[in-house]
Prior knowledge:
The structure is a homodimer of 212-residue chains.
Chain A: H1 8-11, E1 21-23, E2 29-31, H2 33-40, H3 54-80, H4 93-121, H5 125-128, H6 140-155, H7 157-165, H8 170-180, H9 185-189
Antiparallel strand pairs in A: 1-2
Amino acid sequence: MFSTIIDPKNSGFPPHFAPPALKLPSGRIISQTPAILNHVAPKFGLAGEKEGEDEEEARSTVNQLVLTALDLNNETHDTHHPIDVGDYYANQKEAAIAKTKAYRASRLPKFLGYFEKVLESNPEAKTNGGTYLVGSTTTTADLVLFQVLDGVSFAFPRRIAALKKSGKYDKVFALKERVGGESGIKEYLTSGRRQKYSEGIFRHYEELDGEE
Amino acid sequence: MFSTIIDPKNSGFPPHFAPPALKLPSGRIISQTPAILNHVAPKFGLAGEKEGEDEEEARSTVNQLVLTALDLNNETHDTHHPIDVGDYYANQKEAAIAKTKAYRASRLPKFLGYFEKVLESNPEAKTNGGTYLVGSTTTTADLVLFQVLDGVSFAFPRRIAALKKSGKYDKVFALKERVGGESGIKEYLTSGRRQKYSEGIFRHYEELDGEE
């Protein structure tokens, strides 16, 4: 387990602000989720399938979409800790209820609408089924959006059911199904190796959920 | 001016969630500050001075530090909009006062302490004056930390004065002086071309500032 500020004596330079962190084969440790994903994406064929001069640009586009999906992740976290990340939920419940109302009504639909537009406007959407954010191969952007949607569905099942029913975000929900059914990911999800949601970023509090 | 979701018909694929965005020579537009910085850093010699196999790793380390400085940026923004980014400050002032109290007491010192540790533990600190986050050349991480410190100093002058006086973050404040005095940056800062702080991320509300 990482301490919040990892001791540089044990982890090399620089120290790290918070988990997660990844140790590279060289011994160097990289923290910050988007930095880790951007570093490993090309090594696993998850940075868009372009080659040559276009490779770096496709990688940055994937990075851009990862960062936006993680912005939704962070806003979702903040719904239950709007005042002080170092204090208990119970001590900021009133503010959490107010923040979550705005999140459910405005922020969440705005993010889903944005990703629906990305999926719709992918030039390859007509031939790939419309569930790939970039090109026609799985990228880290697809994986992060899948994970965030899964977490939001755990935290706000009533709101997500209503948004699904609206029919406005069909491609976004189809992406979630497609990624969750991919070979390897499907087996992982049902393996028991995946940590259950509990007191982390995605929390289910009945009083924070609602159809609207 | 960008609309919030840039129309893909006018900006190519994909659309963008929010400004800023940068148009590349190829015509492709990249949004999300960390994605833009990570894309351009190597082209301007701002990604650490390593070469060969170590180049990508140094770039990712710089990216990691940029992301952490931007986390402080985002938490600073949220002090005046803790409940609803779509509503006025006046309508969430009480929650803002509560959030800012925790920000001033815990979050801000935690970030400054982290960057002080990074500066201290840079293996080249003994020979470069100790004001470079990575190696001995200016990186995007230095530039972002400078900008965030500058904004926080505008928003919370009393708190920053007290933190400066504590002597615990001398290297961090020395970095701010060093970057602000660099050739090119110095001229820009005094040129009148730089936008003044007003109703953006960094806002000064007397009731949100304090020595502690």
